[in-house]
Amino acid sequence: MTSRRRRSVLYVPASHARAVEKTRGLPCDVVILDLEDAVAPEAKAQARAQAVAAVLAGGFGARELVVRVNGLDTPWGEADLEAVVAARPDAILVPKVARRADLRPFEARLAAAGAGPGANQGEGESAGARGIALWAMIETAASIFHLQEIAAAAAEGPLAALVVGTNDLAKEACMRLGTERRPLLGALGLVVLAARAHGLAAIDGVFNALDDAAGLEAQCAQGRDFGFDGKTLVHPSQVEPCNAAFTPDAAAVEAARRIVAAFAAAENAGQGALRVDGQMVERLHLVEARRTLAMAGVESTGTG
Fold first, then answer.
1. CATH label of the domain that carries residue 137
2. Count of structural domains within the chain
3. Quick one: 218 and 132 in the same domain?
4. Rounded-to-integer distance, Cα 7 and Cα 135, Å
5. What are the helix (H) ranges across 198-267?
6. Contacts of 289 (CB under 8 A, 6+ apart)
7. 237 lies in the same domain as 258
8. Spans of the chain, pLDDT less than 70
9. Are 171 and 165 in contact (CB under 8 A)?
10. What is the pLDDT of residue 117?
């Protein structure tokens, strides 16, 4: 189970220099510089150059910096990949990953460039000089039927996250999605399960209605309840509501602290199950408690 905070994952068109600059001061956890869907064909080269310049300039602080490239089957994909690998962001987001094989060219390119993850790179670390992670867009009908093999790529390469592309999934399947996204609920659950089975982050899809604050809040809560680590966003105004939804409240944080402290107590050394606040808790609850503290931005000091 992943522990790095990826509550708010903001897409920014790399062709929009002012928008990219603004992200350096936003409270989002992740910035995705987009070279794909948000960029018109005639602006692709400019967007690539500006994305590379932004990565090299830095200034994003603790925010994880990801670049979504165009597919290798497009006129821009090869140039995107070459330029972005050289710039070394934290991760490259691969679009339209339908099968395990779709990740192999990216893995090979990272390995050839010496940009794969280092042997001692832990989950959630910034790639930096240690390597570039891959994130996979799950946005085709075929991808849902190949989730197990796609997620299992994490055992062989730098795959770190699955990102749902709800707009593309709905378009391909001819679904009509409301805020509750009923036609997609099965697929969303499968993405989370595949991610958890292989230690990957799971990032929910976007909410398009910029003026529907209640709808955004409801969909963030739905994604949180499904087990997603966070949600992709299309506008800065969505960042703070999303952070609020995916940040555990004070009661959850306190309960998690007490579980961690109980397992860390010397008298409980080696125990697999304990009574905490009238509840029977096991080590699986300890894992969840540590994740809760990480999502809240609180350091877990227990060693049990």
1. 3.20.20.60
2. 2
3. yes
4. 15
5. 213-226, 239-246, 250-264
6. 255, 256, 257, 259, 260, 300
7. no
8. 1-3, 116-130, 300-304
9. no
10. 58
